[in-house]
Amino acid sequence: MGLPVKRRKQYISHKKRWDKNTILVEKDLVKNYALKNKKEIRRLELLVKKYKTIAKQLNRLQNPSESPQGVAFLNKLKEMGIIDVNTTSIDNVLDITVVDFLERRLSNIVYKLKLAKTPEQARQFVVHKHVRIGDKVINSPGYLVTLSEVEQINFRETSALFNEDHPERQLESVKEIIEEVELVEEKTMETVEASLKEEVTQEQEQVETTQEKEEDKQ
Q: What does pTM read for this prediction?
């Protein structure tokens, strides 16, 4: 039978596990990017560490940014959308963070393209196999989308969400309804305030007239 292959951890343990600021920052990341748990952040931390290690190794070469290995490394990160397209120095790779990778997640791109109303809904669409990239259906919300793949993101043809008239895709109409309700509420508040002011002024005028009549009698 042989020995089973030992599975390696795909994430690293955080050094500041019980730090208050770290907990609050990661809580916001989980909420803003609709992550399942903080283990997804740990996986990306391992990925950041990996690319920074490669950048440090390339910096030992002479003219690392112009070497074939350095150029290929930078082009790969540019295509992934992790660094700016105009970046020419490998030193800039040392500044990448977990947020740079979170921005390239499929669920986040779906939300940014306004194919979903919330990050949570975008994650649900991906997990339920409604989203495709080109001809390939991707059901992993953590899939890192390259720059060339952004234009190919859409709902698959057999999905009910492929129809633009689907209620879940009527984002603009929902926004317009909310704006109209807010305008109506503002107008009603203005009319109520105006009517209250008129009532107050009428009461003051009545009080003044009664006082004048009493003075005339005296």
A: 0.71
